[in-house]
Amino acid sequence: MKNIREKSSVIDKWGNRSCSLGWVAIPTLLLFSQKELKITSSEFNVLLNLIVHWWEKSESPFPSQGAIAYRTGLSLKTVQRSLASLEKKKLIIKTATPRSNMVTKGRTMYDLSPLVAELDRVSPRILDSMTNRRKMVIYHEE
User: Which of 40, 49, 83, 99 has the fewest beta carbons closer than 10 A?
Assistant: First the structure.
């Protein structure tokens, strides 16, 4: 089996310029479970923008809602609605911070551990569904 850092590296696939700002690891299961988790396309886009700022497991990201709106092309109100909906679906936990905090400067922190737990919960069902579909395709091709 090939070392993951060999020819399949992110930089080798995407190039130096595309990776000049870094890159983000996202579990494939998150993409495959959007329907199961009832995540809309706007919510998914906002969620990806939270994930891009989640560098350490123990440190919640705190990007500004304005920055998310700018990068996604969504209105600030749509970003706010998406964040509220993700919280209502229990996929994130929002925590306000004081403006006096020199690091967060009053931005909201977003705990993504509920999303991780929910992915773990739905993974057997998603994987089983994918296996069954694969078996159906093979059966019909024979």
Answer: 99
Q: Is residue 79 part of a domain?
A: yes
Q: For 128-141, what is the mean pLDDT?
A: 69
* 51-58 mean pLDDT: 94
Count of CB atoms situated within 10 Å of the CB of 81: 16
The pLDDT of residue 132: 79
Asked whether residue 52 is assigned to any structural domain, the reply reads yes
Q: How far is CA 26 from CA 6, 39, 61, 77, in A?
A: 19, 15, 15, 26
Q: Is the pLDDT at 6 greater than 80, yes or no? A: no
Mean confidence (pLDDT) of the chain: 90
pTM to 2 decimal places: 0.83
SS3 13: helix
Q: What is the DSSP letter of 42?
A: H
Number of domains in the chain: 1
CATH code of the domain containing 109: 1.10.10.10
In the chain, % helix, strand, coil (3-state, to 5) comes to: 55, 5, 45
Domain that holds residue 81: 30-141
